[in-house]
Design brief:
Blueprint: H1 3-10, H2 14-22, E1 29-30, E2 36-37, H3 41-54, H4 59-65, E3 69-72, E4 75-78, H5 83-113, H6 117-129
Antiparallel strand pairs: 1-2, 3-4
Length: 130
């Protein structure tokens, strides 16, 4: 299938599909005309990529782990022994980021709570107009 068809079937823009190719996540066949030819399995690959991106992984990490995953009843299952340690490391990185974001939110909450009443009232009025 051509890139437009893959885009329609996955809901991912053609530009993003080209980016996935640049990152080594997709490897379409090239026709003599230069057009990309995608396999039926690339639909599932794009869905896996989207799921892994949504899980907080970057494209470099996804390129490394994608060959070690298979679909099993709507779940991704690791197939390479070393992958579990890598995934645990990614989970820890995400957990640290969550802690950092929670601290940032708490700091913002403190600043917001310290706002004088007149500033808070103007902010509430502005939000009501928006």
């Amino acid at each position: 299938m051509r890139i437009g068809e893959l885009s329609r079937r996955t809901g991912v823009s053609e530009r993003l599909l080209r980016y996935y190719e640049e990152q080594g996540l997709l490897r379409p066949e090239r026709r003599p005309s230069g057009y990309r030819a995608y396999a039926e399995g690339d639909v599932d690959t794009v869905r896996r990529i989207r799921g892994l991106l949504a899980a907080g992984l970057n494209t470099a990490t996804i390129a490394t782990i994608l060959p070690c995953l298979r679909d099993d009843d709507e779940r991704l299952v690791p197939t390479c022994p070393d992958l579990l340690a890598d995934l645990a490391g990614e989970r820890e990185r995400i957990s640290r980021a969550i802690v950092d974001l929670q601290a940032s939110r708490a700091a913002l909450d403190d600043v917001i709570a310290a706002a004088p009443a007149d500033v808070a009232a103007r902010a509430a009025a502005r939000a009501a107009r928006a």
